[in-house]
Automatic annotation (TrEMBL):
Residues 406-417 have a biased composition (Pro residues). NCBIfam families: FxsC_Cterm, FxsC_Nterm. Residues 18-119 form the TIR domain. It comes from Micromonospora trifolii. It holds the Pfam family TIR_2. Residues 383-423 are annotated as: Disordered. This is TIR-like protein FxsC. InterPro entries: FxsC_C, FxsC_N, TIR_dom, Toll_tir_struct_dom_sf.
């Protein structure tokens, strides 16, 4: 991939820092995936940077992804924010390096730095923080830069900045680290500014989703050419997975928002029309987005009953309606909910507006994954094609070497997938 062109975007004034973090799955019964302590830290750091800074007119202090409007194109908004930021502040945690979304933000900013010029010009523009300590057996070269922020604060390496933010007993250390980090951000942004320039989108720097993804977002909605009589065609398209239930308030189809949520939680994901997804739904966790107007067609009850029969426990349905829609869907929402209950899915959620849809999605993705881990198919273990050597066969003679295949890749340290599936 060629580096992005380092050009100033018209009208852009810049941002002091961009905060990057690994989204965590909500706890049981929780809904939003935003880590409350990340939000608290962002607010505290913003206040401290503002206290130390002398920004030019129109320059923003800080950005993190909870600032993105609900209906926006998340990836486009992130690329724009990454292109405006002077300093990239990743909160390193064990989950950060397993989240393609978080790593994509970092790689996008690194590509922008590479296009900006020499290391002297770009020094200080990437300032990592140790958010949650790593287990001793997990090493990443990037951690040294994060530890550099608090070499003289022993508790920082032991407990991480998240503990400082959470616990009143660490208040003095927390304020010291906040002041130090803010000082570095202000120094870099004001004395060595890069100015806004293009940052590559996440799809340019993250590996494409595999053909057999971890997660599926299936959509059961009418297509534009098969709408119920008198149904407003706005929001419908040639494919169900392109359905936009909230019209102009969303820039992307509803399924794409659900996919983004799964990706932020570390799962590769893709969208499918329900009619084409049956094979994948048998072996992958999924969220099923249902337009209740699907139940308004003639003979819909019988047809949907056959389609929904046999859905697995790990397919979590969401009936999606719009309170601002002039055509009331209450009757059909009740009907399709009953059909889902009859198909053996007792927990059917409903989103009546865009904020509810966005708020529910992290919990639904997490619940589908939890059900899959509990009930998913067990893949039989396949022994290696050749017998594993035994120590009983004797050790090599002194001075001899064990033959190796130089073309063989090193062992994959990733843990096996649940139920015997190896990624």
């Amino acid at each position: 991939m060629s580096p992005p062109t380092a050009r100033r975007r018209p009208g852009a004034r810049g941002t002091y820092f961009f905060l990057s973090y690994a989204h965590s799955a909500p706890p049981p019964g929780g809904r939003a995936d935003a880590d409350v302590w990340v939000g608290q830290f962002f607010a505290d750091l913003t206040d401290e940077v503002r206290r130390q800074a002398r920004p030019v007119a129109g320059m923003r202090i800080g950005f993190f992804d909870q600032h993105i409007p609900l209906g926006a194109d998340w990836k486009a908004a992130l690329a724009e924010a990454l292109g405006d930021a002077e300093v990239f502040v990743p909160l390193y945690s064990p989950g950060y390096f397993s989240r393609p979304w978080a790593l994509g933000e970092q790689e996008s900013f690194r590509a922008r730095l590479a296009a900006a010029g020499s290391a002297r010009v770009t020094a200080g523009h990437l300032t990592p923080v140790l958010w949650i300590p790593f287990p001793p057996w997990e090493a990443h070269p990037e951690l040294d830069g994060a530890l550099d922020l608090g070499r003289d604060v022993p508790e920082y390496a032991a407990d991480g900045l998240r503990a400082f933010c959470m616990l009143a007993s660490y208040r003095a250390q927390y304020e010291l680290m906040l002041s130090r980090l803010a000082s570095r951000i202000v120094h870099t942004a004001e004395r060595r500014p890069m100015g806004p320039s293009r940052a590559p989108g996440l799809d340019e720097v993250v590996r494409p989703a595999p053909t057999d993804p971890d997660f599926v977002v299936a959509v059961l909605a009418p297509t534009r050419d098969r709408l119920p009589t008198d149904r407003d065609p706005a929001g419908y398209a040639a494919s169900g997975r392109l359905w936009r239930p909230y019209g102009r308030s969303q820039q992307l189809p509803a399924a794409e928002y659900a996919v983004s949520t799964a990706e932020r939680l570390g799962l590769s994901a893709r969208t499918e029309d329900f009619a084409q997804a049956s094979a994948m739904l048998d072996r992958r966790p999924a969220v099923l987005l249902v337009d209740p107007w699907i139940a308004a067609a003639p003979d819909a009850a019988a047809v949907l009953g056959r389609m929904l029969h046999g859905l697995r426990e790990w397919v979590v349905p969401l009936v999606v309606t719009d309170d601002d829609d002039s055509q009331d869907a209450t009757r059909w929402a009740t009907a399709v909910t009953q059909l889902l209950h009859d198909a053996g899915l007792p927990q059917v959620k409903r989103a009546c507006n865009m904020p509810e849809f966005v708020d529910l999605m992290p919990a639904l993705v997490t619940e589908a994954r939890r059900q899959f881990l509990k009930y998913g198919p067990v893949v039989p273990f396949e022994p290696p094609p050749e017998p594993v050597p035994s120590l009983r066969d004797g050790l090599p003679a002194a001075g001899s070497t064990v033959p190796t295949d130089p073309a063989s890749p090193p062992d994959d340290p990733a843990p096996p997938r649940p139920h015997g599936e190896n990624r």
